[in-house]
Amino acid sequence: MTSLRDPRTARALLIAFTVVSAAHLLAICFGVKPLQYGTKPLLMPLLAAWVWALAKPGTPRLLVPALLCGAGGDILLEIGGTVAFLAGMGSFAAGHVCYVTMFVKLGALADRRRVLLVGGCYAVVWAALIVLLWPDLDAGMRVPVALYSLLLASTAVTASQVNVRAGLGGALFLFSDTLIATDLADWRHLPAHAFLIMATYLAGQYLLTVGTLERTGGVPRTDD
Q1: Is the N end or the C end of the chain the one with fewer CB atoms within 10 Å?
Q2: How far is CA 124 from CA 130, 148, 153, in A?
């Protein structure tokens, strides 16, 4: 990625991302729909802009596209309806392809034994979820959910090989989308269900981003 490193701009963008994220989560808590809908499309673009402001030689080129694919998914899922939902899932899937490709390039498959161990654990979780969800999903959603969740688990597995923060980010992203899948299956909601979906999603995307930047030396010190 072209060198654009600008710590002051980056700091301002990170503050903006934090403020907008907090506003979005508060809007969910208090049911302020206009604020909720108005802030959601800004979340991932702000995070992507933060990465762009920190960009330097060695920053993975696929990180910004991964986040912008998340932005596309966020917007499409807000539209509602099956077609928009599937399109949103496709946008998120493209983001996960970016993540997996990026993490593999960063050496995520170097320790094959560890990859097999972590991958086996996620495979068990994935299989259990699909078995449980399958009977309650609409017929047209079963295969897309199974394939998308497999790709999401692949992000979690490869992220776990980058560093602890990226691994936690992948796990939180998986948890967030699992909650969305329970919506599709019409399961009983956890307390603060919508808040948990977005809080874990935002934390997941942020940790995936920070973990990647840390791996490539892209996160500045606070005194930069």
Answers
A1: C
A2: 10, 16, 11
Residue 2 lies in a domain: no
pLDDT in tens, 41-50: 999 999 999 9
**pTM (two decimals):** 0.94
Share of the chain above pLDDT 70, in %: 96
Any domain includes 36: yes
79 found inside a domain: yes
pLDDT single digits (tens) 27-64: 999 999 999 999 999 999 999 999 999 988 888 999 99
Closest CA to 102 of 185, 218, 9: 218
| Residues 154, 19: Cα–Cα separation, whole Å | 31
Q: Which residues contact 18 (CB under 8 A, 6 or more apart)?
A: none
Helices (H), the chain: 7-30, 33-54, 63-79, 82-105, 112-133, 139-160, 164-184, 193-215
Give the HSE-up count for residue 112: Cα atoms under 13 Å, Cβ half-sphere: 0
In total, how many domains does the chain have?
Answer: 1
